[in-house]
Specification:
The structure is a homodimer.
Chain A: E1 2-11, E2 14-18, H1 19-31, H2 34-40, H3 45-58, E3 64-68, E4 74-78, H4 80-106
Antiparallel strand pairs in A: 1-2, 3-4
Chain A binds a DNA duplex (30 and 30 nucleotides) through helix 2, helix 3, strand 3 and strand 4.
DNA sequence: ATTCGTTATGTTTGGTAAGATATAACGCTC
DNA sequence: GAGCGTTATATCTTACCAAACATAACGAAT
């Protein structure tokens, strides 16, 4: 028996960042490519692009720097702001997990 | 911009109780009827029954007392144990919300 | 100019989950 | 015994979301 949680942050009622999106951002950061990140996470490029696009349209600062064409066809870099989103969400998530683990011990189920 | 969360408790890798199921349990407790609870939550009787059945099969103590036939066709009561599940989950959930609200203030997004 | 791998975007297809429908058993009431 | 409203359960249909497919633009390299 174990406790599970999912958290996310909304903006204008729409999902801004959550587990899946942060994971995707991390992959983009590692691979410097949306398509490579999508492949690594076994999702379609289109889905990955859509998710990233939603993040970008809701964010107040640029999250990605994209290059179309050119050497190796282009690529995508995650901005410092984007990286801070990753870091902040991950620590938040971990803090939540730790908190719930403690609370969970108090229960009698 | 706001933070959202969903938590649930699993047993043997399967969902035991969560937001939706606890809500359903509450309705059953209020209406003393699975079918009335389903109608109130605008879900099919079948779905409600399935959800409750999963809770019951995973729980170690009885959660519901059901009567088929008889006056008014029968009905369903939530046991004390079932009520304790509701109460414990709801306080856990509220504690988590309060915790996240505090953590959220620390972020810079 | 051609090739290449990427970003960008529309369209179509398909698999799954939700809903609708159907049927039976039960036991009190009348 | 007939009727009623409930629990219980199977099957069938539908609607929706996700995946697959298709196509174009781009720019460096050769």
């Amino acid at each position: 028996m174990e406790i599970k949680s999912r958290l996310w942050i909304e903006k204008e009622g729409k999902p801004f960042i959550g587990f899946g999106r942060i994971n995707l951002l991390k992959q983009v950061d590692e691979t410097a490519s949306i398509s490579a990140a999508a492949k690594a996470l076994k999702m379609s490029y289109k889905k990955a692009w859509n998710l990233l696009n939603e993040i970008e349209t809701l964010a107040e600062q640029p999250v990605l720097v994209k290059n179309i064409g050119g050497k190796n066809g282009g690529g995508t870099q995650v901005t410092d702001y984007g990286k801070s989103l990753i870091l902040q969400f991950e620590t938040l998530n971990q803090n939540c997990i730790n908190f719930l683990e403690e609370e969970y011990k108090k229960l009698e189920l």
